[in-house]
Amino acid sequence: MALIETGPTKSAPFIIEGIRGIGFDPADISYLIVTHIHLDHGGGAGTLVKEMPEAKVVVHEKGARHMVDPSKLVNSSKRVFGDFIDEWYGEVLPVEQDRIMPVKGGEIIDLGKGQRLQMIDSPGHSDHHICIYSEKEKGLFTGDAAGVYLSDSGGLIPTTPPPEFDPDVNVETIKGFLGLDLKLLLFSHFGVTEKVNQTLNTSIDWLMKWKDSVSGMMSKGLSQEVITEKFRADTREALGSDRGNELLYQWVIEHHIPMCAMGYLNYFKKKDL
Ligand SMILES: [Zn+2]
């Protein structure tokens, strides 16, 4: 049995409760797979493995050392997002080295009963990102590689944080998904869709559109605040009047969009160096 994504430390009790709620025992989990090490995806691993004595933590080889010693990761997240992440996400506990199973894409985890999970290297959002293809459902667990899906309204927006985001690499990754035999996209944020090609193409369009738009605004010397406001305006327009879950909508506008703008700015600054 496998669990894909741990969520942050603060989600751990809910994950345990959820697993029990659907009739399973956390102790029976063999693989705890994280798409990448950002704290909202893998931050809870060190806490959850305590309840899952058999579980290996499956993580991209480029991110594995940060699961063993999360101090740099936590400090860099604080630099980018502020000290409030402790309060938001909870304390990040380390995972013991011998519990880690590093992957680089191409590996297959066979869970039995025809359920095989294929690891897919999927850089762009971060350079240590894997997606997981479920052969049985023809489903792709996208992590953060194809954006954030707002299942209540059906809206999709990119997720482009510093320090590793690269729009061109991300677009190539998503184009690779278009070549898979897919019936389902399963987003870590926040739901599932069967509109596979349409959603993936929307994701590509966003990434390119924001790349052009930030490039243009930077050449005019416009500030981060102006770029953030442009992203907010684009998002409001794309999501339209059907805002779906209001709390989620506000989170996107207030917290997610500024992070996206920072990611693009960081990308262009790195390119100029
Ligand atoms: Zn992420």
Describe this structure in words.
- With 273 residues, this protein is of the alpha/beta class.
- It is 43% helix and 17% strand.
- The chain has helices spanning 12-21, 39-42, 45-48, 64-68, 71-81, 85-89, 167-178, 196-219, 224-239, 246-272; strands spanning 2-4, 31-33, 56-60, 100-103, 108-110, 116-121, 130-134, 139-143, 148-150, 155-157, 184-187, 191-193.
- The strands form three sheets. The protein has a six-stranded mixed β-sheet with strand order 5-6-7-8-11-12, with no helix packed on it. Strands 1-2-3-4 form a four-stranded parallel β-sheet. The chain has a two-stranded antiparallel sheet with strand order 9-10.
- Helix 1 links the parallel strand 1 (2-4) and strand 2 (31-33).
- Helix 7 (167-178) runs antiparallel to helix 8, helix 8 packs across helix 10 (246-272) and helix 9 (224-239) crosses helix 10.
- The structure holds zinc ion.
- Zinc ion binds next to loops.
